[in-house]
Amino acid sequence: MSEVYFINGFLEGGKTTFIKDLLEKKYFKIKGRTLLIVCEEGDTDYEKDELKKSKTDIEYIEHEKDFNEEYLTSLEKKYRPERVIVEYNGMWNRKDLEFPWYWEDVVEVALYDASTFKLYADNMRSILAEHVRKAQIVVFNRCDEVRDKLASYTRNIKAINRSVNFVFKGKDGDILLDPDESLPYDMTQNELHLDDVGFAVLCIDALERYDRYEGKKIHFTARAYKMKGDDEFQFVSGRYIMTCCAADLTFVGMISSYFKAYELENKEWVNVTGIIKVVYDSEMKRKVPVCRVIELEKAKQPEEEIISLL
After folding, report:
1. Which of 36, 176, 213, 269 could form a disulfide with 168 if both were Cys (CB 3.0 to 4.6 A apart)?
2. How far is the C-alpha of 140 from the C-alpha of 189, rounded, in Å?
3. What are phi and psi of 53, to 5 degrees?
4. What is the pTM of this model?
5. What is the Cα Rg of the chain in Å?
6. Rounded to whole angstroms, what are the CA distances from 285 to 213, 234, 277, 280, 281?
7. Angle CA(199)–CA(205)–CA(206) in degrees, nearest 5?
8. 91-97: which pairs have CB atoms within 8 A and are 24 or more residues apart?
9. Which residues face 164 on adjacent strands?
10. DSSP per-residue string spanning 106-137
């Protein structure tokens, strides 16, 4: 079984350069041969001498219908590679893509030009969502002039795939530090009045960086979800985020403890004031933020029930 690397993203996002650089890295060297399957030709070409040096065979797939399990299997039988790298066409359908059954641990990477990311996110949201839904790594290239936007971009992707990792590069290819945060609330304050976007962002951010929210007083509007089997003094304060379209939604929320939770109707809208406490969840086997409610009142449904981060 070959190692498989699936490289996706829009045209001019830097896929070819990423693969060429990877093949030159010492840590990426292997004894056997690499099969490179290219589905999109951009501005950068693969040089024959470079491919020969890295023991790489290259095949081009021009039509989406030809990228299928049967043909991929035939290519592996032909070349018998130790490793397969796919440079996918970012405009082709990823959602229903079927790999050969023995491709068990596919490493997926999505690459974007940070300077044009918003344009694609605004106009091709559903395609972008499928790029990142199963990706382990997202690489942003050419970040130099949009550093103030990167935190927003990463949060949008986290709403689709919360386990993804990020790499940020400058125009010269140098790896940059994580972007400065541009949260929609002021973390220097001990009391946070959250609008719709602020609530969604906090729920996503607090799952990973819960310690910095310990003791914060928060105000927000959400729905109270009462799950079967839950403690009668707990509910989930939650909202839905639109990830790519109105039919594709992601739920974000926070466990909330309230001494009158049993009186709440399921899915009713509430205004909540609470204090964030970090506790250990034995089922999840990790620490999680919990909102300890100190004030709660019924609320009107917001004009926009579904939150859009893009």
Report:
1. 176
2. 31
3. -65, -35
4. 0.74
5. 23
6. 19, 19, 16, 7, 6
7. 85
8. 91/10, 91/11, 91/127, 92/39, 92/64, 92/67, 93/64, 93/130, 94/8, 94/127, 94/130, 94/131, 94/133, 95/130, 95/133, 97/67
9. none
10. EEEEEEEETTTHHHHHHH-HHHHHHHHTT-SE
The residue with tokens 């709440």 is 264
List pLDDT tens digits, range 246-259. 667 889 999 999 99
Tokens of 175: 């790896």
Please identify which residue in the block is written with the tokens 């829009």. Answer: 10
Query: For the packed helices 196-208 and 147-158, what is the interaxial angle rounded to 10 degrees?
Result: 80
Q: Can you read off the two tokens belonging to residue 130?
A: 């499928």
Residue 195 DSSP code: -
Q: Which of 43, 37, 44 is nearest to 20 (CA)?
A: 44
d(CA 90, CA 72): 18
Residue type, 293: V
Structure token pair of residue 200 = 């969604």
